[in-house]
Design brief:
By secondary structure, this protein is mainly alpha-helical. The chain contains 2 helices and no strands.
């Protein structure tokens, strides 16, 4: 059986470190949640839904590049 190369051992470690380092920066993208939104248990427009969007932002550029 061949021994494991250092690169083969380091790649999973680098992946975990990279994922952990990029995670906290995303926390600042969340908007604050109002107390009345925290108490929601159902949505009349979506009865029986397991989850609903409280906020949705769509950024798009409709300018033609031509």
């Amino acid at each position: 059986m061949r021994g494991s190369s250092p690169i083969r051992l380091a790649l999973p470690l680098l992946f975990v470190i990279g994922a952990a380092a990029s995670g906290p920066s995303r926390a600042f993208d969340w908007l604050p949640v109002a107390p009345e939104e925290l108490t929601l248990t159902s949505e009349p427009k979506a009865p029986g839904a397991a989850a609903i969007f409280l906020y949705r932002q769509v950024d798009r550029d409709d300018t033609d590049a031509e």
